[in-house]
Design a protein that fits this description.
The structure is a single chain. The chain is an alpha+beta fold and 296 residues long. The protein has ten helices and ten strands. It has two domains: 87 residues, Phosphorylase Kinase, domain 1 (2-Layer Sandwich); 196 residues, Aminoglycoside 3'-phosphotransferase, Chain: A, domain 2. Helix content is 47%, strand content 15%. A hairpin with a 3-residue loop joins strand 1 and strand 2.
C-alpha cells in the first residue's frame, strides 16, 4: 500500500513530554510502520484501522512479559487509538538497541551461545501463564481451521498458476498434513508468533533482545521455531530446540518443514494486498524449494 506521511507536529503536540529531535523510519511490516524517535522510543503506526488490534495485543503482552524474560524486550509506554497526526492512532514503546542476528558472520562459539539464549528465552516465555486481562486480548490460534481455509483458497488463487502435476503434489501434501491429528495436538502456550531474524537483536555477536510482539497469541509453542528453520537453518534450529529442552528436536524439524508449505501459500495469496513485494517473491521461491526437497 502507498505510504502516507505522519504529521509529526500534531503527534508531538499530543506528547508534550517528548521532544522529537531525531525521527527515522526503522522498518515496515504487514500491519504497521515503525519509527524511531531520538534513538529512544519506537512509534508504531498501523497501516489500516483493522491493524490497531496488533498494537493492543503487543502493548498488553509486553507489559506482562517484560519483568520475566531473560532477554531485553520493549517496554510499553502509551497508546493512542485516535490522533490528529495519524488516522489510525499509534503505540509507543522503548527502543531495543542492537542489529538483527547475522548467523553467517558469527563464530561457532557465538552461534552456540545464541542458540542457548534463544532456547532459554522461548522456554521462559512459553512457561508464563497469562492472567485474565491478557487472555482477554490474546488471539487464540486455530491452525487446523486456518490451514483448511488456505488450501481451499489456494484452489482458485495458487493451483491454477501451477502445472497439473505440481498442483496435485502441493494439494496432496497439504491434505496429508491436515489429516494428521498429531500436528494439531498441543497445549496452548503464550507464543511470540513472528520470530524472524529481524526481530532477534544482537550486539557484538551476542543475542540481547527480542522485538515485535504484535503477532503474540495462545498457540502451539513449536510455531516459535518456524522462522529459525526457514531463515537460520536446521542445524541452528536443532541447537535452539535442544537448549529449550524440546522432547523431539528432529521431529520438530520435520513438522516445521511440512508446515512451512502453508506459510508459502499464505504469503503468495495475501502478500499482494497486505505484504511487501519481496514477501511474495520469497514465498514463490520458497514453494519451489519446498517442492524440490519434497521430490528428493
Amino acid at each position: 500500500m502507498n505510504k502516507q506521511s505522519p504529521n509529526w507536529t500534531h503527534i508531538q503536540s499530543e506528547n508534550p513530554g517528548l521532544h522529537f529531535d531525531h525521527i527515522a523510519l526503522l522498518g515496515e511490516g504487514w500491519g504497521s510502520w515503525a519509527y524511531g524517535i531520538n534513538h529512544a522510543w519506537v512509534f508504531k503506526l498501523p497501516k489500516r484501522a483493522g491493524d490497531w488490534d496488533e498494537n493492543i495485543t503487543e502493548q498488553a503482552v509486553l507489559a506482562f512479559v517484560q519483568p520475566h524474560l531473560p532477554l531485553t524486550v520493549p517496554k510499553p509506554m502509551l497508546h493512542r487509538p485516535t490522533s490528529a497526526g495519524w488516522p489510525h492512532g499509534y503505540a509507543v514503546s522503548t527502543i531495543v538497541q542492537g542489529q538483527p542476528i547475522d548467523l553467517p558472520h558469527m563464530t561457532e562459539v557465538q552461534k552456540a551461545a545464541a542458540a542457548q539464549a534463544l532456547g532459554n528465552f522461548l522456554r521462559t516465555l512459553h512457561a508464563l501463564q497469562p492472567d485474565d486481562a491478557l487472555r482477554a486480548v490474546l488471539p487464540r490460534a486455530d491452525p487446523l481451521g486456518e490451514f483448511q481455509d488456505l488450501v481451499e483458497l489456494a484452489e482458485t488463487k495458487v493451483f491454477p498458476q501451477l502445472s497439473t502435476h505440481t498442483a496435485k503434489q502441493v494439494r496432496t501434501a497439504a491434505h496429508r498434513y491436515l489429516a494428521d491429528d498429531a500436528n494439531f495436538h498441543y497445549r496452548p502456550a503464550l507464543i511470540h508468533g513472528d520470530l524472524h531474524h529481524e526481530h532477534i537483536l544482537t550486539q557484538d555477536g551476542v543475542v540481547t533482545g527480542i522485538i515485535d510482539f504484535g503477532d503474540a497469541q495462545l498457540g502451539d509453542s513449536d510455531w516459535d521455531f518456524s522462522d529459525f528453520l526457514l531463515e537460520l537453518g536446521a542445524e541452528f534450529t536443532t541447537a535452539c530446540a535442544r537448549a529449550y529442552g524440546h522432547p523431539d528436536p528432529q521431529g520438530l524439524i520435520h513438522k516445521l518443514w511440512r508446515r512451512s508449505l502453508f506459510g508459502y501459500l499464505h504469503d503468495i495469496m495475501y502478500g499482494p494486498e497486505f505484504g511487501l513485494p519481496e514477501d511474495v517473491e520469497g514465498a514463490w521461491a520458497g514453494l519451489q524449494e519446498w517442492l524440490r526437497q519434497a521430490g528428493e
